[in-house]
C-alpha cells in the first residue's frame, strides 16, 4: 500500500474536524460481539478506533458478547449448545460458563487491548452495581434473562472519571440468580438508559439488504415505520429480525440513531462517525 504523505495525513485530519466537533462530548454505545470478534487483526483495529474516539472527546461505552468463546468452552466441557429462536438455552451449569467467559476472559481481554492501545478502560458485568436487573424470560430457556431495569449509575460514574466502560452482558435479580442476556438487547437498553447519541451494532453482514445475497442492495437509511413494512415484505427476516427489533427498542427508549454495520470492514466505526460516507444501515425514528 502506498504511504500517505504528511500533507495527505493533514488533509484527512482537517476533513474529519467537523465530525470531531459534532461528536465531542457526545455518548456513543458500541455493541461488539459474535462473529465480528473472531478475526484478531480486525479486533485490534476496532480497539484502535474506540481509543481514537475516546481521545478526541467522544464518550464511548463498549457492550460485548462472546458467543463463539462460550461455544468453545462448552465443547471442551462436553456440553452441547442448544438454541431456541436465536437464544441460548441456559441451564445452571451453562449460566456459570457464560459468566466465566463473558465477565472473565472476554471482558478482561478487551479491557487489556484498549489499555495497550492507549485508552483508559474499566471492565464491569451487568451484575456489578445491579447494572442489568433481569427476570426469567421463559422457563423453557432456563437462565435467559428478560431485562427489567437498567441501573446506569456505575456506567455514568466510570464515564465521569474518564474511563471507557466495557460491559459484559450478564444480568442478575434480587434473589441472587445470574442470567444470560442477549447482547443486542442489553446494548439497546443500556444506550436508551444513557440517552446515547448513537448505538452502533457491529455484526457480520453489511446491514439490511433488499436482497440478502447481494451486498450492493444495502439499504443505507430507514425509519421505524419503514422497517415494519420491510418485516411484512420479508426483506427483514431470519437473524436480522431480532437485531432490527433491538434497533427499534433503542429508538423508542430515546437513542437518536442506531447503525447496523459490518464489523468485518476495517475501521468501519471511524467511517461511520468521522466521514460523510457512513457505513451499514441507519435506523431512525419517524
Describe what you observe in this structure:
With 286 residues, the chain is of the alpha/beta class. It has one domain: Acetylglutamate kinase-like (Carbamate kinase), CATH 3.40.1160.10. Helix content is 42%, strand content 22%. The chain is built from nine helices and 14 strands. The chain has an eight-stranded mixed sheet with strand order 5-8-2-1-11-13-14-12, sandwiched between helices. A two-stranded antiparallel ribbon has the order 3-4. It has a two-stranded antiparallel ribbon with strand order 6-7. The longest helix has 25 residues, at 92-116. It is globular, with a radius of gyration of 19 Å. The N and C termini lie far apart (43 Å).
In short:
The chain is of the alpha/beta class. It has 9 helices and 14 strands.
- Spans with pLDDT under 50 lasting ≥5 residues? none
Question: For the largest beta sheet, what order do the strands appear in spatially?
Answer: 5-8-2-1-11-13-14-12
Q: Strand-and-helix sequence, N→C?
A: HEHEHEEHEEEHEEEHEEHHEHE
The CATH class name reads Alpha Beta
The figure for the number of domains is: 1
Counted by DSSP, the helix tally is 9
Topology, pairings included?
Layout: H1 6-23, E1 27-32, H2 40-55, E2 59-64, H3 67-76, E3 83-84, E4 87-88, H4 92-116, E5 121-125, E6 132-136, E7 145-150, H5 153-160, E8 164-168, E9 170-172, E10 178-180, H6 183-194, E11 198-203, E12 221-223, H7 224-233, H8 240-252, E13 257-262, H9 268-274, E14 281-284
Helix pairs in contact: 3-4, 6-8
